[in-house]
Amino acid sequence: MGKRRDYFVCNECGHEEAKWLGRCPECGSWNSFREMKAAGPAGGGAVGGAGGRAASGIRSAGSRASGGGRHSPGGHKKLEVMSIDQVQMADGVRLDTGIDEVNRVLGGGAMLGASALIGGEPGIGKSTLMLQLSASIRSQRPVLYISGEESLPQIRMRAERLGIVRPNSKGSPAPGAGGKAGAGTNNGGAAADEPGLGTKNGGAAGAAVQLVCESDLDRIMSVLREVKPQVVVVDSIQTLLSVDAGSVPGTVNQLKYGCHELIDWARETDAALFLVAHVTKEGAIAGPKVIEHMVDTVLYFEQAGSGLRIVRAVKNRHGSVDEIGLFTMEAEGLVQVPDAASFFLEQREAELPPGITAAPVYEGTRVLMVEIQALVVPAKSGFSRIYSDKIDNNRVSRIAAVLEKLLSVRFSDQDIYINVAGGIRLGEVGIELPLAMALYSARTGIPVPKQAALAGEISLAGEIRPTAHMQRRVRTAAEMGFTRFIGPRDVRAKGASSSAAGAGAAAGQGGTKIGGEVAGMKGTGTKNGAGGIAERVAGTKNGAGGSAAAGLPAGAVGAGFQRVQTLGDAVRYVFGQR
């Protein structure tokens, strides 16, 4: 029989040592080691059981905090093994959150039995968003909001400001429980002039949101077993404290242990769990990376320019990570952006200044029209530098190198500044052609035509390559009033939807339909009635897919979908035909 050996665990990083050390060799923390009792020979009643040490001295999910369960010594049940095609799917596995932008990012609503981790800068609105979600989500069982950072009166004051409850009322929700009907609201109450985040019919509203201010994990688990909520919000995980994981909240052990207990409970009870997290000064979620592996969805709440808030998914087991949710912070709380497609466009009466282009950007399942801005000035320190926080510096450098090589436009002695209006970050390849035209315009001083939109990928050889969903980009540009579109030659090579392909089936017969607009018809939502964007395949000058607007001969200057094959062609069509 082996001799029992105690060991020491670092409270900060979980590193284990056989003897006490003043400084942790893993994370460098001082006086962070605490003594842990090793498991007994029979594995009964000691930490870790018969298998030896539990990781960092933490008990399994069936410990005292969870009150027994499938992992507890007395709660074992026979494991059932079945074929994947025998697994039965329950109806209604998703809950409508009542907020369309959140539904979009989550992949269609909150998944029952799943956990979502949301992080963001202090004051960006994480608690506000979670409280609004708690009041609007369509749940059949109670919604429990657990706060370890605020008191009950503080939460009540925010709920009154958001219109979830009436001031000086007792358990009575305000009309609409959000104060406004509009974006994300379905008959939530009295109509208002502005779009808001009211509740939908059947939403939780103020009276159904249960509050508890507690950070002790054992007591929280007891409340969960008693209330049996269907939706749980924990604000925030850095405040969770369990005696089984140490005496200081926010440590690595506390975070791993607390999140594991809550996630395991949500999975067993088919509850939707939302965990709010702090972030570091670098912007990453504070705590061990293993937490992001444990949860099903990881969301980042970011702030862009002009008060814009963006919810972005970086991990989603039940949906796409390409979707974003757009909000603005108003006095009454977070308000959804009603017209996301044109939100990032600057409305100008005069012509565009040099260095500015409009680009349709595909984000998830929708197309956003954005404005890319470029400024080129002589280098001040003897070598050129690139200043771009919304578009990757390496991409800007590569596009500038291609322009300098193929078009003899010198950038090596220039400082380059790149910005995106509205503050949204762009990462897709379709922005490379408009970025190149913005750089060329800024360097030469020649403005891009106001009614022109561009999209396409640029190779190192200067070829314009097709990008996904080009037909939808064309349609969105037409709806925003753009009458010229410059894009790759083969627009149906990648990402063409069946509906878009059907709309272009008449190609070659003259007057092709693109994006639902027929040549000669007025484009939906256009400002000047120029007839949207249409192309003529037959009779082009160069065979590269020349274009014409209604009533104009093929290849005429003014409007249409101009297909280009090289970067030089794009420059000629954008700056040569005016």
Report a brief summary of the structure:
By secondary structure, the chain is of the alpha/beta class. The chain has 11 helices and 23 strands. It has a 9-stranded mixed beta sheet with strand order 8-7-9-10-6-11-12-13-14, with helices on both faces. Strands 15-16-18-17 form a 4-stranded mixed beta sheet.
Layout of secondary structure:
Elements: E1 7-10, E2 16-17, E3 33-36, E4 94-95, H1 100-106, E5 110-111, E6 115-120, H2 126-136, E7 143-147, H3 152-162, E8 209-213, H4 217-227, E9 231-235, H5 252-269, E10 272-277, H6 290-294, E11 297-303, E12 308-316, E13 324-330, E14 333-336, E15 356-363, E16 366-378, E17 386-388, H7 393-407, E18 414-420, H8 432-444, E19 452-454, E20 457-458, E21 464-465, H9 470-479, E22 484-488, H10 498-503, E23 560-564, H11 567-576
Parallel strand pairs: 6-10, 6-11, 7-8, 7-9, 9-10, 17-18, 19-22, 22-23
Antiparallel strand pairs: 1-2, 1-3, 4-5, 11-12, 12-13, 13-14, 15-16, 16-18, 20-21
How many strands, which pairing sense, and closed or not: the largest β-sheet?
Answer: 9 strands, mixed
CATH-defined superfamily of the largest domain = P-loop containing nucleotide triphosphate hydrolases
CATH class of the largest domain: Alpha Beta
The average pLDDT is: 78
Unreliable stretches covering 5 or more consecutive residues: 42-64, 70-74, 175-202, 493-559
- Helix-strand category: alpha/beta
Strand content range: 15-25%
CATH architecture of the largest domain: 3-Layer(aba) Sandwich
Radius of gyration: 29 Å
How are the strands of the biggest sheet laid out side by side? 8-7-9-10-6-11-12-13-14
- Considering DSSP H and I runs of 4 or more, what fraction of the residues is helical? 10-25%
Would you tell me which CATH topology of the largest domain applies? Answer: Rossmann fold
- Multimerization state: single chain
How many helices does DSSP assign?
A: 11
Task: Compute the number of structural domains.
Answer: 3
- Gap between N and C termini: 90 Å
DSSP strand count: 23
Overall outline: globular
